[in-house]
Amino acid sequence: MAKTLILNQADLRDCVGLDTDSLAVVENAFRLLATAAVAMPPILRLDVPEHNGEVDVKTAYLPGVAHFAIKVSPGFFDNPKLGLPSLNGLMMLFSAQTGLADALLLDNGYLTAVRTAAAGAIAAKWLAREDAKVVAILGAGEQARLQLQALRLVREVREVRIWARDSAKAQAMAAELDDARAVDSVDAALDSADIAITTTPSREPLIQPQHLRPGLHITAMGSDAEHKNEIAPAVLAQVDAYVADRLSQTRVLGELNHAIAAGLVHAEDDFAELGQVIAGQRPGRTGPEQITLCDLTGTGAQDTAIASLAYQRAVAAGKGLSFDS
């Protein structure tokens, strides 16, 4: 009988966090997207409008990686009114050789949060200036905290400005950090910032052309659905280097989607993907004065990478419940 390992969120938190290994596997996933015959179908999305819900299904097979993951990721945004978290989900991990289900990862969205933060750090590693020290964070939820934590693994952060629509949340996050302060406007957050990270579900642009300055890098990770928009379309027309996690996705889900709809970018325009920059196939930042933008919509390749790392570590640590399926 085939054995399947069940891992709950506590098991997975014990095994995987934001460290050099998690960044490395996500970076490798991006590299493989550019250099290998990765199989990654379009995102399957189910909307549940009566309950302000959406469900995304992502997957990818990465050559050379022993497993592939299929992730089911619900987001039901009225849940806090019921005392429930907005985000949930699980991952199923299959052998890439036999197709057998080796593990069920009941992570409640934890692994997605980790791989998303890791992707933000990788974007900054390759696109932000080496001497970038002042960081603007838009949003004050879990991902805002994780993005900052991951960024500190690749850049020496000296000053953090935090803005959120709920000022109390921005103040609470700033109070947790020695080098951070809450600000009352996006203008104040972006003033003289070297790196800006957007982590909100905003439907209206937050970063505008007037916020751009030489040397700025922007990591935008909140726009993962057609209706979400954190970056004004005119910004994409003015940056020196726009980089997508997956161009086919950002054309329909990311910030690029809105620039195309506004007629400021052509739908057929070619842009670099982060994996191509990592692999040396396309340029990213080529000078300290350039303005760069990385548009992250989330990929199944990242999910396979982080789920595989979690499984390897869990098996080594003897975590989880194994049963005959």
UniProtKB/TrEMBL annotation:
It holds the Pfam family OCD_Mu_crystall. Coiled coil: none annotated. This is Ectoine utilization protein EutC. The lineage of its organism: Bacteria, Pseudomonadati, Pseudomonadota, Gammaproteobacteria, Pseudomonadales. It comes from the Bacteria. InterPro entries: Ectoine_EutC, NAD(P)-bd_dom_sf, ODC_Mu_crystall, ODC_N. It comes from Ectopseudomonas composti.
